[in-house]
Design goal:
The protein is α+β, with helices and mostly antiparallel strands and 338 residues long. It contains ten helices and six strands. Strands 4-3-2-5 form a four-stranded antiparallel β-sheet, with no helix packed on it.
């Protein structure tokens, strides 16, 4: 008998399994068909062909004259041309492609006159920029949230009152208040105060992204504290007693004995928390951070393509969360006890 086959697999009915698989695909086909039917019956003009421009587009470069001047010279420069315009400040040289300008030597220019217009290189669209900002903020917040959560979790199970009570207070305050309120306080209260102090001392102010990262990290860390506490509590207390009797300090015991074992049990809930963090980052648009959701709203405002852009936004969030889920499952398999 194959020892790798579980008891559940041995007891399962092959026919029932095949019918279940067929039922799954039937449900998926029905769901996709329903969505397709809804798209063709709704009174809306679908313009999917415009969606790629929100990810990558070719920039249109337009050059205008800044002052009154005269075209002094037009000369070739490789595969481009140098248009030299002289004004009261001296000569100004514009290097532009061929056929991108309609000027001759001796022509006069006024402020706002078109000098040249041509197609530039590829630029990332607002959805790409928003996706990058969401990934960057989520990654940094995840690392800081893990760090805060591990420290808080160790303090939460400590017998020292100052550590334990501080961790409990932190967890209850953060988990008991809405994330949006915390983001607002972090940016409009703490951010305003900190930036004012920095400017008074001749230092540049911090970007709103850092206050958003701080709010997400503190919020996530509060939940990670409880996840770590539960993971530590799942380890038999005899291991702690054995480590302490062997001469280890409390923190050495946690670092070398308890936390490596607790990591295996806390990976699934950690995955769920970090998936929520990616989705919670959509609230940072309230403090003018152009993450993915805010970029989507801006695109809808300019194009009125509400359905297409919201669907693409949902797909991008799904790709991020699904990738993270797969990575966590891979770590679970790597750390699983054989």
């Amino acid at each position: 008998m194959n020892s790798k086959i579980s008891n559940i697999q041995r007891l399962s009915n092959p026919t029932a399994h095949s019918l279940s698989v067929a039922g799954f695909f039937a449900v998926m086909i029905l769901l996709i068909g329903s969505v397709y039917y809804a798209t063709i019956t709704v009174d809306y003009i679908w313009r999917w062909y415009k969606v790629p421009t929100y990810f990558m587009y070719k920039e249109t470069v337009i050059i205008y004259a800044d002052s009154n001047g005269e075209v002094k010279e037009i000369k070739p420069n490789g595969d481009k041309f140098d248009v030299i315009i002289t004004d009261d400040q001296g000569d100004i040289t514009y290097t532009v492609p061929k056929d991108s300008f309609d000027l001759d030597e001796g022509d006069f220019t006024s402020p706002g006159d078109l000098i040249a217009e041509y197609e530039g290189g590829w630029k990332p669209g607002m959805m790409t920029v928003g996706l990058w900002i969401t990934l960057k903020i989520s990654f940094i917040s995840t690392i800081l949230g893990i760090f805060i959560g591990i420290l808080g979790g160790v303090a939460r199970v400590s017998s020292t009152p100052v550590l334990k009570w501080t961790a409990i207070t932190y967890v209850e305050i953060i988990r008991g208040s809405p994330l949006l309120v915390q983001i607002m306080i972090a940016y409009f209260v703490l951010g305003t105060t900190i930036n004012k102090i920095l400017m008074m001392n001749g230092m540049p102010s911090l970007d709103p992204e850092w206050y958003g990262i701080a709010a997400l990290s503190v919020f996530t860390g509060a939940y990670v504290v409880e996840i770590v506490r539960a993971g530590i509590g799942a380890i038999h207390s005899g291991q702690v007693e054995a480590a302490r009797s062997g001469g280890m300090t409390y923190f050495q015991c946690m670092y070398y004995i308890i936390l490596p074992q607790a990591l295996k049990t806390i990976l699934p809930p950690l995955a769920g928390q970090f998936i929520n963090l990616i989705k919670d980052s959509s609230l940072l648009g309230m403090i003018s951070i152009r993450e993915l959701t805010k970029a989507t709203r801006e695109g809808i405002t300019t194009s009125l393509q509400a359905f297409e852009l919201w669907i693409m936004c949902a797909i991008l969030y799904l790709l991020m969360t699904f990738t993270l889920s797969m990575c966590i499952q891979y770590l679970e398999r790597r750390t699983a006890t054989k």
